[in-house]
Amino acid sequence: GTLPSWRLDYDREVMKQLQGFHPDLCVLAGYMLIVGAEMCQRYHMINLHPAAPGGPTGTWQKVIWQLIDSNAQETGVMMHLVTPELDKGPPVTYCTFPIRGEPFAKYWPEIDRLPSTSPARHNEENPLFKLIRQHGLAREFPLIIATLKAFSQGKVKITADKRIFYAGGKPIKGYNLTGEINKLLKGEIYESKELLG
């Protein structure tokens, strides 16, 4: 939908504050506002989103509940190009992880026993909800860092017409950094009793 005029005024004020700068890339993480078309055109902006490409949209809470309600097998974290449509920009980088098997396996039957209308099923203290969040959150900063590294090394590029390319000029639908992120996390998630539930 169309943004209200006060939101577009806000974007213009942000652009005014950024006038003296000429960033190659702007990173939004926790910005939580839809950005208008004018600002999207002016800057190459990428946004951190708590789902894999093609996954649920919205806040991290909504994403996790959609994953649980749809009995998803995996999820992930991505950086996508910011567009005026919420969480619908093309993926730039991403990583994925399973939410079945260990350490998630014991929590799925518990949640499956709860009626879909039960408040306990949609409580943020739910162990499955918390575990999915912990595993996603653990990947967010490593993905931001790996994404910036990929841009600085020329592995990923955004063209003037807002298309995503891999080194050598090949168009891509997101640069998969799962292997790199898992290497960064090895010893953090997989050896942490807190994250293993």
Automatic annotation (TrEMBL):
Q: Please provide, alphabetically and separated by semicolons, the GO molecular function terms listed in this UniProt record.
A: phosphoribosylglycinamide formyltransferase activity
Q: What is its EC number?
A: 2.1.2.2
CC annotations in GO: cytoplasm
Source organism per entry reads: marine sediment metagenome
Pathway assignment: Purine metabolism; IMP biosynthesis via de novo pathway; N(2)-formyl-N(1)-(5-phospho-D-ribosyl)glycinamide from N(1)-(5-phospho-D-ribosyl)glycinamide (10-formyl THF route): step 1/1
* All copies of domain Formyl transferase N-terminal, residue ranges: 9-98
Q: Name one GO biological process term.
A: 'de novo' IMP biosynthetic process
PANTHER family (alphabetical): PHOSPHORIBOSYLGLYCINAMIDE FORMYLTRANSFERASE (PTHR43369)
Please report the name of this protein according to its UniProt entry. phosphoribosylglycinamide formyltransferase 1
Pfam families linked to this entry: Formyl_trans_N (PF00551)
The UniProt entry, under InterPro entries, shows: Formyl_transf_N, Formyl_transf_N_sf
Instruction: Give yes or no: UniProt keyword Transferase.
Output: yes
Asked if the keyword Transferase belongs to this entry, the reply reads: yes
Q: Which UniProt keywords apply?
A: Purine biosynthesis, Transferase
